[in-house]
Amino acid sequence: MNEAATSLDRLHDIVLPAEVAWWPPAPGWYVVGGILLLLVMVIIYRARKSWLANAYRRAALHELAAIDDAAGIAELLRRTALASTSRAVIAAKTGVEWLDWLDSHCPERMSETVRRQLTIGVYTCRVEAGELDELRDYAACWIRRHQLTEHQLTEHQVTEHQVAGHQTSGQPPAAHQSLAGNGIPENGKRSGPY
């Protein structure tokens, strides 16, 4: 062995520090984990709220598949509108005013054939299959995609509060009823005029 101070024989091996353990994590990871958990909870809450808010749409689309006449489709459109808008707003609309209201709340424009089916077609017994298919397609589009403006949402909330004030009289609230509350029985068959 070489006794010189600069000899390589006198060097010791490198001693590595112990590996850093993955657990427990640093305090910052607890904060990140808490924020992620909160974010997941908010996403789940909003998805559930949206799913429940659109239950009337799913019920209406299910019933639409079984309807085979223009009068039934017109009735279903009115009941679907009643599920999302106050009864006072919908009940006042008839004829051209009702059709304009439907048209203004759907991104797809209402064709003249659909307008004719919703006005005259409800009183005829025989409707051509192509025209009924066009009406059914428009109704499905309206049910899936209809939107209310901010003003109408505010108006609907005011009506809900007014109805809630009258709830002590024993009458059920008219706003935000499910389709079953608007005349669609559990068996899915229609009864009575809209």
Description:
Among the domains are: 24-53; 55-147, no CATH class. It is mainly α and 194 residues long. It starts with 26 loop residues before the first helix and ends in a 29-residue tail after the last helix. Helix 2 runs antiparallel to helix 3. Residues 158-178 and 180-194 have low confidence and may be disordered. The protein is rod-shaped. The protein has helices at residues 27-53, 55-64, 70-84, 87-91, 95-104, 112-119, 129-145, 150-165.
Note the topology.
Blueprint: H1 27-53, H2 55-64, H3 70-84, H4 87-91, H5 95-104, H6 112-119, H7 129-145, H8 150-165
Helix pairs in contact: 2-3, 2-7, 3-7, 6-7
Rounded average pLDDT: 79
**What is the strand tally?**
0
Tell me the helix content.
55-70%
Strand content: under 5%
- Uncertain stretches of 5 or more adjacent residues: 158-178, 180-194
What structural class do the secondary elements suggest? mainly alpha
